[in-house]
Amino acid sequence: MTEFFRDVKFDWMGKRKFFIAVSIFVMLAGLVSTALRDLTPGGTSAFNLGVDFKGGTVVTSKFKQKPSDDEIRGALQTAGISDAVIQASTDKPDEVLIKIPILENAPEAETLAVVTDNANANTANVNEQPSATNQTANTQAQAGNNQVNTGRALVKKALDTFGKEADASMALDQDQAAAYKIVGTDSVGPVAGAQLRTQAVTATLLGLLGILLFIAFRYDWTYAAGAVIAVFHDVLMVLAFFSVFQWEIGLTVIAAILTIVGFSVNDSIVIFDRIRENLAKNRTDSLYKITNDSINQTLSRTIITSGLVLLSVIALVVFGGEVLRGFSLALLVGVTMGTYSTVAIASPIAIWWQQKLGAAKSKAAPVTEKQRIASASRRPVARRPIAR
Question: pTM score, two decimals?
Fold first, then answer.
């Protein structure tokens, strides 16, 4: 195997306090960011959640000549929608799904939504007296309809820059003057967003539990603790960056976090395996020295693997566009921090934990009277010379 670094003698264990202090500083910065954003009246939320998590409107549009995603996004920004997600349909190349967040400050669209609701209300029976439960349900349904109408009106205003919308009674191909048609609108409620958040957290925790059990079974549970703590460290680092810089969190970010979990554990297992091999070969060396030697021996492999992955991730960040922005940024931070934690966090924590357990076991083990007598019998006895 190609080695960039030969005979490295860096003392990773000696610098462990510095590395842990750096990690704590970054995580505290993320914690302060989330706390201040939550506690500041009228401020932004702790995390910039996307449409998938906080709800919004999904508008499906069909084009005769589909514009590029950047052109659609520019038109939406001109209309006042800044956080839209443009998603192409996999089986219908002429259709586009436009996801927009919950809109609160859109006066023109809200006016249109109110007029539409009033028209629908005038057709209802004014003498009907609904119950309190029905009133609550009607209020929620009306709020959802307002949101859908608001989102549709703003999307229509943006898409009108590409041409006229087809008549509602005609198909897009039948209307020669039309450039597009809105074929469907739907709303993603906050309840569905909360369910997605719960499922994302559950998937991450189950993945960490599986990793803990595998490493505990294959190696030792002290190594498993070090690997899982390092993975938690990587996830918290990614969340800290997303909170500080307010990058949007969507389902693709959750996929990136799960990828980071597997990547980080893979690197940690390589070092743990080398530590286990060196423990069998060098029984006279201290655990401190064996850990340093194992990290230095696998350093070339770690840098080559992580470097190649980082090149691909940087290409995604630069050329991936707005759709892959959150995914690529999460991978960029996660791969960088995962490589750092594998070398500087996971192994020192595992060795420290193993030493603590060994010291605790030696203190807790009682010494029997038989063992004390046997130990005393093995002590050297100084004999005085006898004068003859």
Answer: 0.67
